[in-house]
Amino acid sequence: MTTPHIVSREAWLEARKAFLEREKAFTRERDALAAARRELPVVIVERDYQFDTPSGRRSLGDLFGSHPQLVVYHFMLGETWEEGCPSCSFWADSFERTGVHLAARDTALMCISNAPLEKLSAYKKRMGWSFDWVSTAGNGFGVDFGVTFPDKQQTAAGGYNYSQKIFGEEMPGVSTFLKLADGRIAHSYSTYGRGIDILNTAYNILDLTPMGRHEENLSYPMAWVRRRDRYGA
Description:
Layout: H1 9-38, E1 43-44, E2 50-53, E3 56-59, E4 69-74, H2 86-92, H3 99-103, E5 107-113, H4 117-127, E6 133-135, H5 141-144, E7 173-179, E8 185-192, H6 201-206
Parallel strand pairs: 4-5, 5-6
Antiparallel strand pairs: 1-8, 2-3, 4-7, 7-8
């Protein structure tokens, strides 16, 4: 960290007010972007995906519960993996206890992974999480929504983050769905890579601080991240 520029309170206030104008412009642009996102077209989900859940086999439509909206976090935990991805675990810590608030705005949140349900349940217990988490049970959901690339092969999703590139067999992402009045399910949006940053509370808090994420000198940006029960180990 470089030594900060130290000034008087008056000079600080002047600089802060000037920066506030940039923050307000960003907020207005963010609101405009969110509005434009809501105006994006949707596509009907034709495939009958079935998932393994603690209450038995359930369809994609069942995962909505009583809500018209469903947000899916594609959690990286492959069929043969022993643990969840450290970075996805970092993100998932931000999901805890948010479900009740989302439900108040007609939305369900669900984590979905390729690993068998018993492995998801064991890892969920280890991490102390209570949010809903179900298994794709080999139904191709991760492949179709651009986060699973078997044998690192290209799929119809067009590579990771619409890039035509493949970086691994499992990647993170978020997808949103809407249940229409006639019961059909529509896919409204998916985002990957830096697009999922907004879901990470810790990163957003760090962005407010003088040191920020201070990842510049690491071998890769999230090299410092550990599963919550592995810090200090």
